[in-house]
């Protein structure tokens, strides 16, 4: 998986910034686009991958390791202690290998991460950025955060109170779903710009730009590594 910094070319950054500028020419809302590599650490997913690989390694070793009764005084066979040591070693090695692979391969780690957990982590991260980037701090409570997390393949749109009251939570949820579908059929830059354009059109009718409107937040794409 490409990291967010590598995913966007200078032209992509320019396209997204231009989309924000164009949208804010229509509306008093302040739109902030953000893309993050991931929204959570997901240590449990790595542990789960390690446990599964350790278990598989144990089963394979157990099936291949012949169990021969050992008589008292007979040192020619495989002693149970040796077998037990072998089992412990393969389980530990399997666990370490599985956890390491899950750390390095996002797709593998995602298999062991519950969808609900990924959604929760994305919401938490988006809310944190909403405050860290001062999207909530506009004069008329008109900030809108468009957040996409690469690892989870999830989008979150958060609107400050004034904008939320005008758009409605149901429409905001629809925008999230539409953006995710657009990412599947196009690239993330196109999906981002399309979502920004849609917001500009809809908010232009509900919250039109005023003559004395001041640009309070940066129009540039924010990358969270």
TrEMBL record:
The keyword Membrane applies. Keywords: Membrane, Transmembrane, Transmembrane helix. The chain crosses the membrane at residues 49-68, 80-102. This is TPM domain-containing protein. It comes from Rubinisphaera italica.
């Amino acid at each position: 998986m490409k990291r967010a910094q590598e995913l966007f070319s200078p032209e992509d950054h320019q396209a997204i910034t231009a989309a924000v500028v164009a949208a804010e020419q229509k509306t008093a809302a302040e739109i902030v686009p953000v893309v993050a590599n991931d929204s959570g650490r997901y240590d449990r997913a790595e542990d789960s991958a390690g446990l599964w690989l350790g278990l598989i390694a144990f089963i394979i070793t157990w099936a291949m390791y012949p169990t021969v009764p050992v008589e008292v005084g007979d040192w020619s066979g495989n002693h149970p202690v040796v077998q037990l040591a072998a089992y412990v070693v393969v389980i530990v090695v399997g666990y370490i290998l599985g956890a390491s692979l899950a750390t390095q391969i996002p797709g593998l780690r995602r298999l062991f991460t519950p969808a609900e957990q990924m959604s929760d982590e994305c919401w938490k991260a988006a809310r944190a950025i909403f405050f860290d980037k001062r999207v909530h701090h506009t004069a008329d409570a008109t900030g809108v955060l468009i957040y996409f997390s690469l690892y989870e393949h999830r989008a979150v749109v958060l609107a400050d109170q004034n904008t939320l009251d005008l758009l409605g939570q149901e429409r905001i949820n629809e925008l999230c779903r539409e953006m995710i579908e657009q990412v599947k059929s196009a690239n993330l830059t196109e999906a981002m710009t399309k979502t920004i354009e849609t917001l500009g059109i809809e908010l232009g009718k509900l919250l039109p730009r005023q003559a004395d409107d001041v640009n309070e937040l940066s129009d540039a794409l924010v990358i969270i590594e």
